[in-house]
Amino acid sequence: MSDSHLLQSININSERDILVARKQIRDICQQMGFGLTDVTRIVTSVSELARNIQRYADQGTVSWRKLAEGKRTGIELFFEDSGPGIENLDAAMQNGFSTTNKSMGMGLPGVKRLMDEMEAVSTVGIGTKITIRKWRK
């Protein structure tokens, strides 16, 4: 990527932190020229992944940066926690999978559908790292 830089990072420890991350990322995406539909997709993904950090790991970090690759621009977001990890990441990427009865299991597969690119790495007892990207159309 020819012109990419880290914009900001927020620690996720509470519901308020999730709201702050949503607002800041929404503002950046609007400034970058993303349309309303893509801004909504990005902010929904941020909500889901940040809420997973709070729910399953208690705390973690959301970081993001602008991307530029030739004439194409986008945003890349990183979600990292040191929680219990996801034992079966392949299963977690399927609709309906949940480790609790408090969830419909739409989180990770839903985020994957909303974003252009997604990578996830999780190690039991160490934590989870998820990277998502959305490119301007």
Cα-based radius of gyration, to the nearest Å: 14 Å
The CATH top-level class label: Alpha Beta
How many strands, which pairing sense, and closed or not: the largest β-sheet? 5 strands, antiparallel
CATH superfamily: Histidine kinase-like ATPase, C-terminal domain
Domain Histidine kinase/HSP90-like ATPase: 37-137
Organism: Mariprofundus aestuarium
EC number: 2.7.11.1
GO molecular function: protein serine/threonine kinase activity
Give your account of this protein's structure.
This protein has 4 helices and 5 strands; from the N terminus they run E-H-H-E-E-H-H-E-E. With 137 residues, it is α+β, with helices and mostly antiparallel strands. It has one domain (5-135): Histidine kinase-like ATPase, C-terminal domain (Heat Shock Protein 90, 2-Layer Sandwich), CATH 3.30.565.10. Strands 1-2-3-5-4 form a 5-stranded antiparallel β-sheet, covered by helices on one side. A hairpin with a 2-residue loop joins strand 2 (60-69) and strand 3 (72-81). The longest helix has 22 residues, at 36-57.
